[in-house]
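Journal club side-thread
Mid-discussion, someone asked how the predicted structure for our own chain would compare to the paper's figures. Pasting it here so we can look after the session.
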Amino acid sequence: IALANSVTVVGARKATGYGLEVAASIGREVAAAGLNVISGMALGIDGAVHRGALERGPTVAVLGCGADRPYPVTHSRLYRQILDRGLILSELPPGADAWRWSFPARNRIMAALSGMTVVVEAAWRSGSLITAEMASDAGRDVGAVPGPVTAGAAAGTNELISSGAALIRGGQDVLDRMLGPGAGQPLFGPEITRREA
């Protein structure tokens, strides 16, 4: 996994429909451009990111338990899909249980593996904000998806943007930051492409 072509995308477990839609879209667009999409396979945003990425390519899940155990159990099918078409990572030995401390520990790995960490949704006190802080401390780029100023689920991401994180509206904003402006876009518009075909 190379920093220059890997993006970590994280967010709230109790995600809104808006957050899930944006997360899946970012996963799809970033994977379609050939970048590694990294997340933690948690409920909510993480799961949506992995599923979106799997529609277009592989994805990487970093677990807070042994790599041989799907966690949460409700993501057993997603775990198998990632195992078949992507990569499951953990610093813990096989069979190890998930503990409260193991998730912040896992977050530092996700932040370290990529050139950019994007937070899709996060409340004021959120593990996703810890991941963003770790990424920033490691000199990595940090981005966040904006949300309504009245929404608790967007309080953390809006604060990140206010503090200087890149504003991320979708996968193209991630690709622009990682690969340069316009990366991943067709050279010609759809009408020209259809005529040529």
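Post-session note: The radius of gyration is 16 Å.
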